[in-house]
Amino acid sequence: MKLSRKTRDTLAFWGFVGPFLLGLAIFAYVPIGWSLYLSFFDARNTVTPSVFVGLDNYAHMLSDGPFVASLGTFSVFAVFIVPLTFVLSLALAVGVNQLRFAKAFFRSVFFLPFACSYVVASLIWKTSLFSGVRYGLANTVLGVFGIDPVAWTGTVHPPLYWIVLVTARLWLQLGFYMILFLAALQRIPQHLYEAAWLDGAKPGWQVFRHITLPQLRATSVAVLLLNLINAYQAFDEFYNIMGDSRGYPPFARPPLVYLYYTSLGSGGQDLGRGSAGAIILALLIAVVTLLQGKLFRFDRSAS
Amino acid sequence: MQQRSRRAFLSLAGTAAVGAVAAACGSNTGRPGDPPPSTAMSAGAPTTSQAPKVTLQQWYHAYGEDGVQEAVKNYAASYPGAKVNVVWNPGDYDSKIVTALQNSPVPDVFEAQVKIDWVRQNQVVSLDDIIGPVKNDFSPAVLAAQTVEGKVYGIPQATDTQVLFYRKSMLQAAGVQPPQTVDELIDAASKLSKDGVKGLFAGNDGGVGTLTGPLLWSAGLDYLKNNNREVGFDDPRSAAAFSKLHTLNTNGSLLLGAPADWSDPGAFVDGLCAMQWTGLWNVPKVRDALNDDFGVLPFPKLDDSGKPSVPVGAYGAMVNAKSAHVNEAKAFVKWLWIDQTDSQLEFATRYGFHVPARQSLIDKAQTLQTGPAADVVKFVKENSHLIGGPVWTQTSNTALSDAVAKIAKEGADPVAQTKAAVTVAQSELKRLFG
Description:
The complex is a heterodimer.
Chain A: H1 5-38, H2 56-63, H3 65-97, H4 103-115, H5 118-129, H6 137-144, H7 161-187, H8 190-198, H9 205-215, H10 217-232, H11 236-242, H12 255-264, H13 271-295
Helix pairs in contact in A: 2-13, 3-4, 3-7, 3-10, 4-7, 5-7, 5-11, 7-11, 10-13, 12-13
Chain B: H1 10-13, H2 19-25, E1 55-61, H3 68-77, E2 83-89, H4 93-103, E3 109-112, H5 116-120, H6 128-131, H7 140-144, E4 147-148, E5 151-152, E6 155-156, E7 158-166, H8 168-174, H9 182-192, E8 198-201, H10 208-218, E9 224-225, E10 230-231, H11 236-250, H12 266-269, E11 273-279, H13 283-290, E12 295-297, E13 310-313, E14 316-319, H14 326-339, H15 341-349, E15 355-356, H16 359-362, H17 371-383, E16 384-386, H18 394-410, H19 414-433
Parallel strand pairs in B: 1-2, 1-3, 8-11, 13-16
Antiparallel strand pairs in B: 3-14, 4-5, 6-14, 7-11, 7-12, 7-13, 7-15, 9-10
Helix pairs in contact in B: 10-11, 11-18, 11-19, 18-19
């Protein structure tokens, strides 16, 4: 039997896409659907609940002090960390791009932390760089100036733990965004700069502002989006720096950490409320992302 | 407790088998294919000689001490009533158990502390019928950890406790007496803080995780009261006790940000602090490092209407209700954790420092007869309390620890914060008991 060309194409398509799609369905789509289902039930310590509670879980999570507080904290965190990451990674990229020699070396040096495990980095930050004892790196430096050891993760007034968390996050992530910007910088045609020079644009800020930045538009929007989603999905370094087996303090608690303890805590798994919280968080990220897209008028013609 | 990957110490494997059982079993090495030893059993194990033996899956978390894994495998191998496969679970064991209980017939037997929701979902079976005759031999707090609404769901295996370790020489040098009240503790901690040494270490979270329970008990209160039907800290004294933690956190006498957290003796033996709240399991390491230059205390009382206290916890051997062999699993639990007292004593005291779960075995434990260990045994007998318990849920616990963290760290209003935690705990009780 001879298969028609169309059938062959279809078979080939499913042959290549099928296994991947199957994996995606089993490990992503079904669980997401299940989570949505669980969020309408009283599901404690069970994934096959029987008591339908409608929107009770959602109402509870939205009136739940700690969850709402964590959403608020991380909206503020996003407003702060997204521009900071953006500016720093762009500055790094422009700096590396202008190097006359050892460009590859510095590119690698800045990118390497991204390849480091979040958990490992968190533990190094917590136990050696910013440990609260006199031989922690930060405290050793302060000791040179005769300042007493500081409990970096344990001081709430002022909230010094943010210094530990934010530096760990920047160290881990800047390199990745820098690479994105570097790639985009290298795609900007040289003749644009030559034309600008002929038109009398001053090298430096003026050229950067009118040539480089507009040319980076598509990449900038992508970096901002990734960053924003990342900020709301914070978990690893927070959990490993601030949390322990017994729980997580109410300061700088990411929504995901709170949901983790709610759904998978050893004191009882409340999968219904945890799922409702996860859906709320997903919707929030979607809305903020769409708003941001509107704000920056993300269209391909710009690139 | 500290977990680390362990090598199988084959040298121990041969010697860890319990004398009496090993003698009775001849050369049973527990390898598949070995003929089952024909021992007359008093354990109520199925004695139908024609029926093939069932295979039971038994789960443990990864104990940190060398030798425990071989020991429990040997106990299982010498059980005549069934073939028992021991599974060692490194990592987040508590979550793994909860997940397994939801819809899996495996494990048949496992160690845990019961939660009321497991009972409500019919995930575990009551063991009243096998613990009955020896029920009074277990200390009340340890038994309470395994009891829901009057029924026992786990046979306590070994008791862990936490105490206040202090450096005798440092206290003497500072002219400080071992503290007997919470105020004396605060005073001692601040006097002992000098020259780069901090007075007290109670965890990097400033004691929120470890001292919440002891502070409640110091005021004569508890997490829950009235048979777990009522919140036990709806009382102005709880706010007063929690505010003491704020004092400790603000007067510069607490060690914070230590590389190893409270459950590890590192900070104490390295001389970073003069006093540390940590586990009995650290006595051997502390003794190795400091010889006799340390003593232990319970958490002190708040005032004369309160009492000193130590928290106790104990994993209990439990049976999965969805197991295909519930009766065989129960028979095995009875054999190992009720009948085999020699194994229980060895399990508790040979590999690390734990108090046997049964009162009658404590007097037989050689390691617990002298020095600080003997003091701890006294505290456990007289002042032990259960942290939270089966009815204390994740929701209640998060609410209370958030409240204590805000009081201790931010100086939030103790009364309002405590009240908020009471409200959450009350709504949880309402959900559970109507």
